[in-house]
Specification:
mainly alpha
Length: 101
């Protein structure tokens, strides 16, 4: 669904790569933990506008009880620039496994 899409998927869907799925996984974890989406959306607001122009709220800003290390992994997966994210789901899994030990 739209609110689980990274910006690059809306802007240029032909070039979506595994790193885009990492963003969607991070958004799913974020939503499961907080009940909110990474980018705030107001009732009636166009979801595409939110994807293109919205700012991602850091996880601990929404839910301070999340351990810092776990929040850091999820926030890293939600980096706006794909180059700044985990590049594969396996990379994200390794990072989560490390902080959950």
């Amino acid at each position: 669904s739209l609110l689980f899409m990274p910006r690059e998927q809306v802007v240029d869907f032909k070039y979506v790569k595994p790193v885009s799925d990492v963003w969607s996984m991070g958004a799913s974890f974020y939503n499961m933990l907080t009940g909110d989406f990474p980018r705030p959306i107001k009732p009636g607001q166009d979801p595409v506008d939110v994807i293109l122009n919205g700012v991602i709220v850091p996880l601990r800003q929404r839910y301070p009880q999340i351990p810092k290390d776990v929040a850091a992994v999820i926030d890293h997966s939600l980096a706006q620039d794909p180059k700044d994210r985990y590049q594969t789901a396996g990379d994200m899994l390794k990072a989560l496994a490390k902080v959950l030990k």
